[in-house]
UniProtKB/TrEMBL annotation:
It comes from Sporomusa acidovorans (strain ATCC 49682 / DSM 3132 / Mol). This is Pyrolysyl-tRNA synthetase.
Length: 120
């Protein structure tokens, strides 16, 4: 056998390449775990808000956004907010919350699949 004189492949260490890596999460994961991981809240008008804090007590949670809005949320996988987060139906980001561009890019590159991905 002949010896191979190959070139070592090195991954691109630039931040642009790191941001394009896709994350995979399960589609039917518990809603509160998804909120704690993503830290984004979709409002009914189609805006994404950044979550400042989540206080979970049983099946109910109190969500406080960066623009000081408070919501009482039930733990439902089929709720409007859960579907909007999974399917990425939000139109724009809230200007008061000042969500960083890297967080929005990471959210848009995240894939929610039925049979593949992390259970959070």
């Amino acid at each position: 056998m002949a010896a191979k004189s190959g070139v070592a492949l090195v991954a691109d260490p630039s931040p642009e390449a790191a941001g394009k890596k896709k994350k995979y999460y399960r589609k039917n994961v518990e809603f509160f775990k998804l909120l704690e991981k993503i830290k984004l809240w979709p409002s009914r008008s189609g805006m994404l808000h950044g979550i400042k804090s989540i206080k979970i007590t049983g099946d109910i949670a109190e969500v406080v956004t960066h623009c000081d809005e408070k919501f009482i949320v039930w733990n439902s996988r089929t709720s409007r907010a859960a579907r909007w987060l999974r399917n990425k139906w939000c139109v724009c980001a809230c200007k008061k919350c000042k969500i960083p561009a890297w967080k929005l890019e990471k959210y848009t590159s995240t894939m929610m699949t039925q049979k593949w991905g992390s259970n959070l």
